[in-house]
Amino acid sequence: GGGDEMMGPRRSTRRAGQTMVVGLTGSIGMGKSTVSQWLREFGVPLDDADAAVHKLYGPGGAAVEPIRQLFGEAVLAEDGSISRPALSKFVVGPANSANLKKLEALIHPLVAADRSDFVLRASAGGEPLVVLDIPLLFEKGLEAECDAVVVVSAPFEEQRKRVLARPGMSEAKFEAILSKQVPDAKKRSKADHVLDTGAAPEVTRACVQELVESCRRRIAAERAQQRDEQRRLTAIGLGVVAAGLGLGSVLRRCCGASAAVG
After folding, report:
1. What tens-digit pLDDT sequence spans the chain (262 residues)?
2. CB atoms within 10 A of CB 112
3. Which residues are CB-contacts of 198 (< 8 A; sequence separation ≥ 6)?
4. Does the N terminus or the C terminus of the chain have fewer Cβ atoms within 10 A?
5. SS3 label, residue 67
């Protein structure tokens, strides 16, 4: 499935044949992690925004020292990483909204740089397709960095059942999380493709595989067309050179004949 005029901005800088950047998103409990795993199985390079943050917070991560400077030694765990429970005391809740903004101003550029490096590396390696797994893609306006956006969705009752089965989850927590996310219906209206994980897993997996193969076919066709165009231009160029050389030899013969007569 897909959206229409509701979709919003997409990346405008991709030229034919270049790596296609696909954004992957979906609300909590929609099955995005499963789709991400399938994409990896199909050999698609995938950048996981949550994993990038985890790395930044880990021992020696680029965010550790700046966060310590912001909030003090209390946020450090024994292994030198950022303790999320300790950090949450500084940034969770209405009273800490200013602190949360400071943290986001620090983390977002680091995650963006990591994402940009990932795309550049994949492009340099000739990958036809990469996926950016970003839970808050629409909330952060990151669809403008993608050539296409895939939304993972499922019926509400299925979503609710999955989420409430998680350890430590409650109705109140579920509602609080949903209130911070763009509603599923709006996400679907803004998508280029919608993957329904409410269907049988093998059906959804086949849809993911077809989507990957369709993107790869498109890029392969663009690259083949570029090669044909390059060959055509080369042939034209060689023809011009050959014609020039032919004219040169004619002129030399004429000049030689004139000199002999003179």
Report:
1. 444 444 557 877 788 888 999 999 999 999 999 999 999 999 999 999 888 999 999 999 999 999 999 999 999 999 999 999 999 999 988 888 899 999 999 999 999 999 999 999 999 999 999 999 998 899 889 999 999 999 999 999 999 999 999 998 999 999 988 888 899 999 999 999 999 999 899 999 999 999 999 999 999 999 988 888 888 888 777 666 666 666 666 556 666 655 555 5
2. 15
3. 153, 154, 155, 158
4. C
5. helix
